[in-house]
């Protein structure tokens, strides 16, 4: 087989279609939908989605080490793994259907690919993580939260902050999935295709996050620290707000560029259960912390276009919910996220 980094560019369409179908050989339904052609395109929808993923979707991945693995070794793994191939097709068709929202074929293909990706991924997770499965499990997990981050036609009123719909906050809870899988895969990561990239990122994050203070208010936003009850003795063990505040303090000063935008995006995957529980209860300090991050991501959306799918709308929802507060600290702290997401505060 050819080197993975040249696969998408050197294989003929028929060869590529055959390899993709072989990866999904157990699913006759995919063979049927894969034969469907979109308007003005004679290629099967599987090829359209796969090539778009390779040629465009992966270019939005900010960290060069991660992007390189995704364009090379991950594709090789996908050719032998149904849940990863379905996830790739789901991501590619999602990207396309958001660009062409009136195309019903793309929308149907997107729904089908994600349905099958989730089903086959859940089946894979029911077995013990092994050296043979770790590459595909990690790779799939990196994209599995994408569909919830980029829902079709999301409005601020759909947010858990403004509605009582069960599961409306699940999208945020899903983002910690990679952390869980890495924990399960710990013994096998060193032999994984991701080993070098993860080590590179770990070294960068040690410098960014672990060289700061581990106790007290130094370096934290003073208004946020006051609102969250942070004093000179506070640590991550004594306050669920402390770690998210520390992360915000580390990422806000970063230069705005593609690589740093990718680092900023990892905030949502670092949130612990205690903080997520506060968000679910619509706790004002927790919502303000999340809104600061969402506002930051809105300013970075040129490098992280998925922000437009949900994050901007969720940020507006938090602004709508909190603008009724008469607390001057909350009013001050809302100004940045409101401005960044495009929401006009009544008192601004």
UniProtKB/TrEMBL annotation:
Designated name of the protein: C6 transcription factor
InterPro entries xref list: Zn2-C6_fungal_TF
GO molecular function: DNA-binding transcription factor activity, RNA polymerase II-specific
PANTHER family tied to this protein: STEROL REGULATORY ELEMENT-BINDING PROTEIN ECM22, ZN(II)2CYS6 TRANSCRIPTION FACTOR (EUROFUNG)
């Amino acid at each position: 087989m050819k080197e993975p980094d040249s696969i998408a560019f050197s294989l003929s369409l028929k060869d590529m279609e055959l390899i993709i179908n072989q990866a999904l050989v157990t699913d006759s339904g995919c063979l049927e939908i894969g034969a469907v052609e979109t308007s003005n395109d004679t290629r099967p929808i599987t090829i359209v989605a796969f090539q778009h993923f390779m040629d465009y979707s992966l270019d939005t991945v900010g960290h060069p080490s991660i992007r390189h693995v995704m364009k090379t070794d991950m594709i090789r793994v996908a050719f032998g793994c149904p849940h990863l191939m379905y996830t790739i097709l789901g991501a590619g068709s999602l990207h396309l259907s958001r660009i062409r929202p009136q195309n019903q074929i793309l929308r149907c293909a997107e729904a089908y690919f994600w349905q099958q990706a989730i089903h086959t991924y859940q089946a894979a997770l029911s077995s013990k993580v092994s050296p043979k499965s770790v590459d595909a499990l990690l790779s799939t997990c990196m994209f599995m939260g994408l569909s919830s981050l980029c829902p079709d036609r999301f409005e601020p009123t759909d947010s858990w902050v403004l509605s009582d719909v069960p599961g409306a906050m699940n999208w945020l809870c899903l983002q910690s999935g990679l952390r869980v899988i890495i924990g399960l895969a710990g013994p096998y990561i060193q032999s994984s295709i991701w080993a070098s990239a993860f080590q590179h990122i770990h070294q960068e994050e040690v410098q960014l996050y672990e060289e700061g203070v581990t106790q007290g208010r130094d370096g934290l936003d003073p208004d946020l620290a006051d609102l969250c009850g942070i004093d000179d003795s506070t640590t991550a063990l004594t306050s669920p707000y402390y770690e998210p505040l520390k992360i915000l303090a580390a990422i806000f000063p970063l230069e705005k560029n593609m690589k740093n935008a990718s680092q900023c995006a990892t905030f949502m995957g670092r949130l612990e259960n205690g903080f997520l529980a506060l968000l679910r209860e619509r706790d004002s300090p927790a919502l303000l912390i999340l809104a600061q991050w969402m506002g930051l991501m809105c300013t970075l959306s040129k490098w992280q276009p998925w922000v437009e799918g949900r994050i901007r709308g969720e940020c507006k929802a938090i602004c709508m919910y909190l603008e009724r507060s008469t607390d001057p600290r909350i009013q001050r702290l809302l100004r940045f996220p409101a401005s960044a997401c495009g929401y006009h505060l009544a008192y601004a």
